[in-house]
Backbone:
């Protein structure tokens, strides 16, 4: 993680933080083995039922296209919701004095065309704030890392900073986060950081039900 430092959010970071969360959310998703096996099972099942190779190939292509469109819609809904909720006013959501909440950015030396004041650019984000859906708990949110900086330990450093804050605030044992079935890499990181799965649930929307899109807490 050479050249990358973690610091608290500042008001001038507002637009780049929103842009980062908007553009990186879909590109950070990597399906787990269960999702891949389910998709790969469609063509042979279709061939067994129809006995036709063209029908088999066409059904596989349609399933992949339909799943891709449905997942894209789900991810877009989640991103837009975040931009309207806690990321609408980051200072009020995370940086209010006396509130056990905070937002951090990872900052690095500018690399080829990504803007940033003083030759540095925001390459990652994370936040902690009281959980809306579970009173008495706090939520780890907005974990995003820019494409060119993944695999360098940036996400781990961001999460470690947030966990340290939660520990100092006395809320670490009440910290939760939510992920989806597509965030396999992120889930492995969370497990290494000490999180454990509490429940798995079907995402509450029609597209999610159609493709069996699940989330984890």
Residues:
């Amino acid at each position: 993680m050479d050249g990358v430092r973690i610091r608290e959010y500042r008001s001038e970071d507002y637009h780049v933080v929103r842009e980062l969360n908007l553009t990186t959310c879909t590109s950070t998703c990597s399906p787990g083995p269960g999702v891949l096996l389910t998709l790969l099972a469609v063509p042979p099942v279709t061939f067994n039922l129809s006995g036709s190779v063209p029908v088999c190939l066409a059904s596989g292509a349609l399933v992949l296209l339909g799943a891709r469109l449905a997942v894209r819609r789900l991810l877009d809904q989640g991103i837009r919701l975040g931009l309207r909720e806690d990321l609408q006013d980051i200072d009020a959501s995370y940086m209010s004095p006396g509130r056990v909440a905070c937002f951090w950015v990872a900052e690095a030396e500018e690399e080829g065309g990504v803007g940033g004041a003083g030759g540095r650019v925001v390459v990652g984000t994370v936040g902690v704030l009281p959980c809306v859906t579970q009173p008495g708990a706090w939520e780890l949110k907005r974990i995003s890392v820019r494409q060119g900086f993944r695999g360098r330990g940036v996400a781990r450093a961001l999460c470690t900073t947030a966990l340290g804050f939660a520990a100092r605030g006395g809320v670490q044992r009440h910290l939760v986060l939510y992920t989806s079935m597509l965030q396999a890499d992120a889930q492995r990181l969370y497990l290494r950081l000490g999180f454990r799965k509490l429940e798995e649930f079907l995402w509450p929307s029609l597209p999610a039900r159609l493709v069996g899109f699940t989330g984890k807490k």
User: Anything to note?
Assistant: The longest helix spans residues 53-84. The CA atoms of residues 79 and 171 lie 26 Å apart. Strands lie at 5-8, 102-109, 120-130, 138-145, 175-176, 179-180, 200-202, 214-216.
